[in-house]
Design a protein that fits this description.
The protein is an alpha/beta fold. The protein has helices spanning 11-22, 55-64, 79-82, 86-107, 140-158, 192-201, 227-242, 261-272, 296-302, 310-323, and strands at 2-6, 26-31, 47-49, 67-72, 111-115, 167-172, 175-177, 207-209, 221-222, 224-226, 250-252, 259-260, 279-281, 290-291. It folds into two domains: 2-174 and 226-252, NAD(P)-binding Rossmann-like Domain (Rossmann fold), CATH 3.40.50.720; 177-222 and 255-294 and 307-323, Alpha-Beta Complex (UDP-galactose 4-epimerase, domain 1). The chain has a seven-stranded parallel sheet, sandwiched between helices. Helix 5 links the parallel strand 5 and strand 6 (167-172). Helix 1 (11-22) crosses helix 7 and helix 8 (261-272) packs across helix 10 (310-323).
Length: 325
Amino acid sequence: MSWLVTGGAGYIGAHVVRALASAGIDPVVIDDLSSGHAGFVPEGVPFVQGTILDRELLVETLRTHAVTGVIHVAGFKYAGVSVTRPLHTYEQNVDATRVVLQAMADAGVHNIVFSSSAAVYGTPDVDLVTEDLPKRPASPYGESKLIGEWLLRDQAIATADSEHPLRHTSLRYFNVVGSADPAVYDTSPHNLFPIVFEKLLAGDVPQINGEDYATPDGTNVRDYVHVGDIAAAHVVAAQRLAAGEHVEAAYNLGSQNGLSVREIMDAMARVTGIPFTPKSGPRRAGDPDRIVATGDLAARDLEWQNRYTVDEMVRTGWEARRAAL
């Protein structure tokens, strides 16, 4: 059994690839390397360099490797930047998902795990987000992920009476951090952990973007979940789909315990041993005050667990980044 991981040379995708291999599932990677790194793909894993907007390339890849299903991780994942680049965001997240689904139909592949986002909820006014909460995305990124879920839903409805209906699930998560392999680390210029790491390595002072949010310490509160836990949930979802077992249309991979940016900064200083007082900067467009999700359904069906403390999240991410120096 083999599964295609779109974006498998990226930070999250590369962890999914390793988790699949550890579970005895043969991974195949397609990535255009716009943000991924060929060196993140383990030796021996088939790697196709190309865009998932290329339907013919996708169909060829699916058929050549006798793919059982797709774990669709590739996408443009930056909520703040999506406000200024909405068309690019829709191309990479909506157009590309449509092409992936068309290629799957052409190649006779009927299982897909979609990397969605807690950004589909926007700025909820509840303490804990559950899957049935109304979807009110606050950025083009969140909107694009919600549309991706709709595409999966509609294709499943359209193929429901066919010999091989589309089976799918979407995994919604927000801030993925840490590392489960010292060879893979987050290289995003927009995510909090790598931003802080790069500042500290350069001898600079990290910055908090906005200290006037409606939260206890004024900095925004998020779910921070470890990439190793995220990857493991993708694998269990793929296994359930391939086995014909029941899955929900969507799962939150939430921590149930939000952390503020200031709390993260405190952990950064504590774990790295580099004391600093963060600078204060302006808010980023599209950032809600708080979003913290439950993981109850995922715990029930996908063996979802939060196995790492905040200090362990920082430590594993920091060690992986330093290993690349």
